[in-house]
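S1.2 Input.
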Amino acid sequence: MAPIEEFDIVVIGAGIAGASVAAELAETRRVLLLEQESQPGYHTTGRSAALFTVSYGPPIIRALTRASEAFYRAPPTGFTDANLLSPRGAMFIATADQRDEMAAAAQELKSSITMIDADQARQIVPILRDTYVDGAFVDKGASDIDVHTLHQAYLRQLRARGGDLRTRAQVSGLSQSGTGWQVETAQATLSAPIVVNAAGAWADEIAVMAGLAPAGLVPKRRTALLVAAPDGMDITTWPLVVDVEEQFYLKPDAGKLLLSPADETPFAPCDAQPDEMDVAICVDRIQTAFDLAVRRIDHKWAGLRSFFADGCPVAGFDPNAPGFFWLAGQGGYGIQSAPALARTAAALITGKPIPGDIADQGVSARALSRDRAGLTP
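S1.3 Output.
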């Protein structure tokens, strides 16, 4: 029988959440990062068309995003030489029937957006139908995130700090052992005082494997497709265009247009694939709002975004299992908030205060806790 391998911390899941917190923890702890697939980020992280914007998401996500901005604008020395952000901008549009929703959203986000009228919106994105858009607001600070570069930089940082990454290492057993946890994979038996559950859509399944109550995490499928840009139009400066109630969005992507119906279909954890009905709904919504004839779909895909009941992430120890740390439920905001959430989680795991620049944005341990109000006990 092979000897049990010992670590300070085992992180389950090598998407952006697991990779970033593992890299942070590896500075002072012996860390092992496990990934069930052959490559990290295969599921949600690798399928994300991520945008950095402080006007997107629930309050705790916006706070974490604000606290992540300095990292994105000027990454720490040695992290990466590439730019993590590139200017994009975001424009939220509304019909006449959505005036109340537009007013409410604008009031909540007033410090980071600029109101414009329908004519100004069409000057920015000429294919908006004049019969559709009634008003809009813009977030000029929104930027595209280079997800691949970010993810790979965290994995390099993990290795540089002495951490270990193992792929094709699906967890088959997880149990409390003495003062810590024993983790079983097909290749090895592992032991650590702390296990970090960063398994994305599989986080509740990992908890149940450990003999714990699930937290009510719901994976939801999100569909996306690429289509050709309108003939003769330069789309490079167009912003992301989002329906104010998030019923669809459109954004330039490598010379084409990325479209989504912004669907949130509850779905079991899996290798998600697009549903033809969602694709048809997407095309219908886009063609209703834009003068865009979708004759062919160049590429389509789907990913899973996971949510807790209140729409906010969890980063905290399970109240009923010492050493079992939840890092899950980031929804569609996990990339933009990753730097601050990773630093916050690493502090909580190692018993340190939340870093001051993050706490100053209103981030608290209680707001991220597993036992906060609204979650399954």
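S1.4 Remarks. The mean pLDDT is 93.
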